[in-house]
UniProtKB/TrEMBL annotation:
The protein's required cofactors: [4Fe-4S] cluster
Keywords in alphabetical order: 4Fe-4S, Cytoplasm, Iron, Iron-sulfur, Metal-binding, Methyltransferase, rRNA processing, S-adenosyl-L-methionine, Transferase
Name of the featured protein: Ribosomal RNA large subunit methyltransferase N
GO terms of biological process kind: rRNA base methylation; tRNA methylation
PANTHER family: 23S RRNA METHYLTRANSFERASE, RADICAL SAM SUPERFAMILY PROTEIN
An annotated Gene Ontology molecular function: 4 iron, 4 sulfur cluster binding
InterPro entries: Aldolase_TIM, Methyltransferase_A, RNA_MTrfase_RlmN, rRNA_lsu_MTrfase_RlmN/Cfr, rSAM, rSAM_sf
Subcellular location, record wording: Cytoplasm
Organism field: Carex littledalei
Lineage of source species: Eukaryota, Viridiplantae, Streptophyta, Embryophyta, Tracheophyta
Length: 372
């Protein structure tokens, strides 16, 4: 028998309502489980007596378990392999950053090291991006909102999580209902994450972008653009055929007009494919009316089977100089974390048999710090 996660808000609220139990007790349950993830239901204090048999019969404090936790050599990154109750697995990555490397109003931030969690929203992914390891898995299933939140619960016992990025396995906007519910849970008690410290990445699911600000105000939106024209985009991202670039840009402009949010643009640098000077000029012109931050991402090879190569440092710097210098668009180069444990961008795939020894990365500033 499959049980619901106690963090599956919809089923939990429904069962409480049917039993005449106020949903005000739900945060009480969550707080206890967050602090005691391996607890027994009966140890949760101050609930109505009817709640205990109900919770025991249909819910579990956690329906997933951490199968393994692998640290990068520099211990800046930890990759969690999380086994779901149906036998499938997903990966989540904890990345530790130094807030002092970010800036606020042009001044260095105070503080020190804190952690960001890269979360998965699906088992596998149907987008099939040719540069991404997860895409090679194909699509297996959506995660429930509770299974998404449980990744945060697990991660908090390795490092206190301040920021969350939905950049793990899966296309978050293809699991929209669970995504929205999970973020609403994360921003409420007992987690109390700021929506400004949550970022959702998408390949560009236009109908979901159109309602994103209404459902998730103040949450950051990142778009995996990866090419400045439709032809190249479809070449490396087959799913882009369903989301023409012109319509995607219209959706982003409408989103920005209603939200006043900066849009993060993710752009993977593939040698000879999308990293030439003409591509930089095309990207600058494409984004000239959008308030955005461009994040150039070094390509992380997928084992020995990849058809792509990483752009040279020279090409990356030249690309950045054009977009930032000529078009005045803030452009950063992502310093990769967790490559040696296959935990970097594009490397998440459920396979622990192959460990890379590429070396780690030093502490760096986080994506949410770039929005100021």
């Amino acid at each position: 028998m499959a049980f619901h996660s106690i963090f599956d808000y919809g089923p939990l609220r429904t069962e409480f309502e049917k039993s005449g139990i106020s949903d005000q007790f739900i945060p009480v349950v969550w707080k206890h489980v967050l602090q005691n993830p391996s607890c027994d239901i009966d140890t949760i204090a101050s609930l109505p007596s009817a709640a205990y048999p109900l919770l025991r019969s249909k819910f579990r404090p956690l329906t997933s378990t951490v199968s393994s936790a692998v640290d990068s050599k520099d211990r800046v990154t930890t990759k969690l392999l999380i086994r779901l109750q149906n036998g499938s697995s997903v990966e989540a990555v904890i990345m530790r950053y130094d807030t002092r490397l970010g800036k606020y109003d042009g001044k260095p931030r105070p503080g020190g090291i804190r952690s960001t969690l890269c979360i998965s929203s699906q088992v596998g992914c149907k987008m099939g991006c040719r540069f991404c390891a997860t895409g090679s898995m194909g699509f297996k299933s959506n995660l429930s909102s509770g299974e998404i939140v449980e990744q945060l619960v697990h991660a908090n016992h390795f490092s206190k999580i301040r920021n969350v990025v939905f950049m793990g396995m899966g296309e978050p906007l293809n699991n929209y209902r669970a995504l929205v519910e999970a973020i609403q849970i994360m921003t409420g008690p007992p987690f109390q994450l700021s929506p400004k410290r949550i970022t959702v990445s998408t390949v560009g699911i236009i109908h979901a972008i159109n309602k994103f600000n209404d459902d998730l105000p103040n949450v950051n939106l990142a778009v995996s653009l990866h090419a400045p024209d439709q032809e190249v985009r479809c070449q490396i991202m087959p799913a882009a055929r369903a989301f023409p670039l012109a319509k995607l840009m219209d959706a982003l402009l409408s989103y920005q007009a209603s939200s006043n949010q900066t849009v993060f643009v993710e752009y993977i640098m593939l040698d000879g494919v999308n990293d030439q000077e003409q591509h930089a000029h095309q990207l600058g012109k494409l984004l000239e009316n959008l308030k955005s931050v461009v994040n150039l991402i070094p390509f992380n090879p997928i084992g020995t089977s990849s058809i792509y190569k990483t752009s040279s440092d020279q090409n990356v710097k030249k690309f950045q100089k054009i977009v930032r210098g000529i078009y005045n668009i803030r452009t950063t180069v992502r310093q990769e974390m967790g490559q040696d444990i296959s935990g970097a961008c594009g490397q998440l795939v459920v396979n622990l048999s192959e460990q890379r020894a590429i070396g780690g990365a030093s502490l760096l500033t986080d994506i949410e710090d770039l929005r100021i």
